[in-house]
C-alpha cells in the first residue's frame, strides 16, 4: 500500500520529492511526462500518485484521467504552483482526491491522501470565516490565469495590470 508514482516535469523538484517519500518508507517511481507516467502505470499500478498540473506540453489533468481509466482505485493528488478554485474543482470532478499548491511539504501531500481515506462523516469542518480580500483576489487571478492557459501577458491584459505587477503578485502567493 506504499507504491507511489510522482509526476512532475521539474527534475530537481521531482528528485527532492522522491527522496522525501522514500525517507518515509514509500516505494517511489517517477515520471517527467504524461507518456512516462502512463508507461510507469502499465508496469505496476501505484496505490497513489502525485501529479503536477503543468507538465511541459502535457496537462496534469489528462494524466489524472488516464491513471484513473487504468485503475479507478489509484488515489491522485494534483500538485501545482498555480492554484485556483476552478482548476481544483475540475481536478476533483475528474477523480483526484485533493489538490495541493506548491510549495508543498511532504506532510501536506500525506495529509491530502489521509483525508481522502477518512469516512465522509469524519471530514474536517468547513471554514466559517469569509475569505480575505487578498485571498479573493488570489482566487480571481488564478481563475483568469487558468482560462488563459497560464499566459501571464494575456492574464495581465485581462486584469488591466502591468505584466510585472502580476508576476510579483504570483510570486508572493495567496494573501501576499
Q: Can you give me a brief rundown of this structure?
A:
The chain has 176 residues and is of the alpha/beta class. Helix content is 51%, strand content 16%. It is built from eight helices and seven strands; from the N terminus they run E-H-E-H-E-E-E-H-E-H-E-H-H-H-H.
Task: Write a structural description.
With 176 residues, the chain is an alpha/beta fold. Helices cover 51% and strands 16% of the residues. It has helices spanning 11-23, 34-43, 60-70, 85-94, 106-117, 133-147, 152-159, 163-172, and strands at 3-7, 27-31, 48-52, 54-55, 58-59, 75-80, 98-101.
Keywords:
176 residues; alpha/beta; five-stranded parallel sheet; two-stranded antiparallel sheet; 16% strand; globular
The helix content is 40-55%
Low-confidence stretches: none
Distance between the termini: 38 Å
Nearest-angstrom radius of gyration? Answer: 17 Å
Taking the sheet with the most strands, its summary is: 5 strands, parallel
Reconstruct the topology from this structure:
Layout: E1 3-7, H1 11-23, E2 27-31, H2 34-43, E3 48-52, E4 54-55, E5 58-59, H3 60-70, E6 75-80, H4 85-94, E7 98-101, H5 106-117, H6 133-147, H7 152-159, H8 163-172
Parallel strand pairs: 1-2, 1-3, 3-6, 6-7
Antiparallel strand pairs: 4-5
Helix pairs in contact: 2-3, 6-7, 7-8
Amino acid at each position: 500500500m506504499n507504491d507511489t508514482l510522482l509526476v512532475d516535469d521539474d527534475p530537481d523538484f521531482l528528485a527532492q520529492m522522491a527522496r522525501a517519500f522514500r525517507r518515509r518508507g514509500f516505494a517511489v517511481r517517477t515520471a517527467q511526462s504524461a507518456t512516462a507516467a502512463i508507461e510507469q502505470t502499465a508496469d505496476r499500478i501505484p496505490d497513489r500518485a502525485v501529479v503536477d498540473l503543468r507538465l511541459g506540453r502535457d496537462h496534469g489533468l489528462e494524466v489524472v484521467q488516464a491513471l484513473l481509466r487504468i485503475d479507478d482505485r489509484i488515489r491522485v493528488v494534483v500538485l501545482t504552483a498555480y492554484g485556483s478554485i476552478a482548476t481544483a474543482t475540475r481536478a476533483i470532478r475528474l477523480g483526484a482526491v485533493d489538490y495541493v499548491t506548491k510549495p508543498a511539504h511532504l506532510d501536506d501531500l500525506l495529509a491530502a491522501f489521509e483525508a481522502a481515506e477518512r469516512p465522509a462523516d469524519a471530514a474536517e469542518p468547513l471554514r466559517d470565516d469569509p475569505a480575505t480580500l487578498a485571498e479573493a483576489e488570489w482566487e480571481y487571478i488564478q481563475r483568469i490565469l487558468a482560462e488563459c492557459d497560464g499566459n501571464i501577458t494575456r492574464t495581465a491584459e485581462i486584469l488591466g495590470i502591468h505584466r510585472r505587477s502580476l508576476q510579483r503578485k504570483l510570486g508572493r502567493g495567496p494573501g501576499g
